[in-house]
Amino acid sequence: MSPPRLKAPAFLPSVFTSGNLFCGMLAILEAARGNYLTAAWLVVLAAVFDGVDGMAARLSGHTSRFGVEFDSLSDAISFVMAPALIIHQLALVQLRLIGVLAAFCFTAAGVIRLARFNVSQKNLLEKGAFSGLPVPAAGGAVAGYVIFCFRVGDGLLFPGLAPLFLVLLSLLMISRIEYPPLPKLTAKSFRSYLAYLALLLVVIGIIMRPQYVLFPLAAGYILYGLLRPPASALLRSGRRLREKNKKTEVPK
Predict the structure, then answer these.
(1) Domains held by the chain: number
(2) What is the C-alpha separation between 76 and 110, in angstroms, rounded?
(3) CATH of the domain at 176
(4) With a cut of 70, which residues of the chain have pLDDT below it?
């Protein structure tokens, strides 16, 4: 049975996408003025708009190729260009060419990831597992890192590792590692209920202590994608070994 559709104007998802784009533009302007913390918070706000526009499109059924392209172009500004500029001005500008190349690596990987997603998406309403780290998660990781550092100190912690951080995010974005999407609101499985509970706890944590929660949340999501394949392989191997032992057991 198909999920219920909300009666909403067709342009509503694009309104939220425009909010995403507006926050990304403001983040770039604030980073250019040296207001890096404000710029990072604007990237987080852009992520909120990005999540709401997709939800509005799916619940109302107003999806189109134009909306997909508009969303991707907005993501390129908010979660690729803005975070790259923030981290470059904070930690990479002193590295000159190396810093520029690290920022370009992140920018190119983000744009490639968005282009690959657009050409591979067949169903505009249904999204399976993401192939590669989603761009909003990568940009959110950079913004969350900046927010966390400014909360616990006076500036960026371990600035020398910033190029490696960007390169790691770049490789994850263009990789084929699968990352899970948000659980569907219409799903009623036990696993979905656990996901809803975890999502609720995350939202409560973000509301109460966003400076401390955002970066660990992004880091946990990144590590989940990295650790799930070997963990799944170990579980399958253990299951096959148990089945093999059961078949070779001699009945008494």
Answers:
(1) 1
(2) 7
(3) 1.20.120.1760
(4) 1-11, 59-62, 122-128, 182-193, 195-196, 247-252
* pTM, 2 dp: 0.83
CB-CB contact of 124 with 209 (8 Å) = no
Q: What's the pLDDT at 101?
A: 96
Identify the bridge partners of residue 178 per DSSP, sorted by sequence position. 131
In a domain, 100, yes or no: yes
Containing structural domain, residue 59: 12-185+211-236
* Cα distances (Å, whole numbers) of residue 174 to 110, 119, 166: 8, 14, 13
End-to-end C-alpha distance for the chain, whole angstroms: 51
Q: Which is it for strands 178-179 and 130-131: parallel, antiparallel or unpaired?
A: antiparallel
Q: Is residue 241 part of a domain?
A: no
> What are 179's strand-pairing partners?
130
CA atoms within 13 A on the CB side of 4: 3
Q: Crossing angle for the helix pair 162-174 and 210-248, nearest 10 degrees?
A: 50
